[in-house]
Amino acid sequence: MPGALTNAARKWTSPSPRSGNPSTTSYSAWKRWGGIFDLDGLRRQIDGLNARSQAEGFWDDQDAARALMAERASLEQLVEGYDGIRSELSDCTELLDLALAESDTDVVAEVASHLPTIGARLREMELARMLSGNEDRSDAIVSISPGAGGIDAQDWAEMLMRMYLRWCERKGFKTELVNLQQADDAGIKDASILVQGPYAYGFLRAENGVHRLIRISPFDSNARRHTGFAAVHVVPDLADDVDVEIRSEDLKVDRFRASGAGGQHVNRTESAVRLTHIPSGIVVACQAERSQHKNMATAMKMLRGRLYEKARQEKEAEFAKTYASNQMSIDFGSQVRTYTLQPYTMVKDERTDHKATDAQAVLDGALDEFIEAYLLKAASEREAAEKN
Question: Which of 42, 140, 167, 371 gets the most CB atoms within 10 Å of its CB?
């Protein structure tokens, strides 16, 4: 019996195979969560939001009301998750005490079988703790554009677009393709996706940067190995009350006919909009709607997000070398992640050194481990900086 209990304890406190560090799902780590999650503070926040939602005229501004309700739901989910895991862990502890007293190895095995699930939920909550920035709960706008590599880069950009759509599907996030410009020969010239879901921006900001593909090119008749690059820009879908100054004299507005499928009306009228922010050189475009007015509104939202993200990252030294608006070099030596398909398969994140040998699974949307590794590293660096 002591051996069984020892094995169960080892299972609960075993090192994380991904990080090589002691698991944060150990019982000792769990006891610290009450301090990390200021539960009393969270409950006071929920009470305050409840009081505001019951005020007269609350629904007069429906956008603001929906934002408040979404914030309340997020906080409630966090508190309920903590309380639920704490209750389950307490039950497991009681069962183990009974099993020890009665030498019941079956009960020990049953408790041990629940631990991986509890550990996984704890890990999800730890990630939620890391996503504590002002905009981390926001929806996200993901923009993808090819860089060096010609037709292979264009094809690679389309592969990345598919990868992120698959990841969103796995997470249950809603997606809307707000801009897509197909290349003449293969792949895409540009694409922007609106991603709607809890902490969409908080997760996807880990994807900011240049992504590199190494493979035998399907466009090379001599079957030689080629390298293609594509840039990924992720920005928050900012609420209207977030202040981002855009002066009209700093904007160049181009209107053009939407390309691709969409019906005769879309292609006959100049409904698509391209905005160029002259001081920064940032360019955004939207052609998803038949209405030029709606496309303009979406393009302005994308531009506000890009400018907000640019300002945020310029203030943080760890981002200065990996992101610099449209001036970022989409070429050799600038990549944040490399996807190798030949002569072997490997996906490696250059920032965290996290690797996966099943490259196809990653391209099919298995990005969680890469995102998690990045968030853990960023949080560690931030905590170390704060101590200094």
Answer: 140
pLDDT of 222: 84
Q: Nearest to residue 168, comparing CAs of 136, 200, 206, 138?
A: 200
Same domain, 42 and 176: no
DSSP 62: H
Residue appearing with tokens 């992101």: 323
| Nearest-angstrom CA–CA distance, 146 and 227 | 12
Could you tell me what percent of the chain has a pLDDT over 90?
29
pLDDT at 211 over 60: yes
Cβ-contact 226, 149 below 8 angstroms: yes
Q: What are phi and psi of 143, to 5 degrees?
A: -115, 135
Tell me the CA distances in angstroms from 385 to 132, 133, 192, 318, 366, one per residue in order: 17, 16, 34, 11, 31
- Helices (H) and strands (E) in the chain — how many of each? 12, 11
User: Considering only CA atoms, which of 365, 322, 368, 302 is closest in space to residue 209?
Assistant: 322
Interval 215-229: pLDDT, tens? 999 888 888 889 999
Q: What is the pLDDT of residue 18?
A: 39
Joined together, the tokens standing for residue 375 give 């968030």
Region 335-358: mean pLDDT is 94
**Exposed/middle/buried for residue 107 (C-beta within 10 Å: 0-12, 13-18, 19+):** middle
Radius of gyration of the chain measured on its C-alpha atoms: 24
Q: Is 222 helix (H, G, I), strand (E, B) or coil?
A: coil
Specify the CATH number for the domain of residue 87: 1.20.58.410
CA distance 107 to 113: 10
Measured between alpha carbons, how far apart are the two ends of the chain, in Å?
47
Total domains in the chain come to 2
155 and 106, same structural domain?
A: no
Inform me whether the pLDDT recorded for 153 exceeds 90.
Answer: yes
* Domain carrying residue 363: 150-387
Give tens-digit pLDDT for 327-345. Answer: 445 555 568 999 999 889 9
Pick from 273, 292, 279, 272: nearest CA to 245: 279
Q: How far is CA 283 from CA 40, 156, 191, in A?
A: 45, 21, 12
Would residue 139 count as lying in a domain? no
Please tell me the total number of residues recorded for the chain in this structure: 388
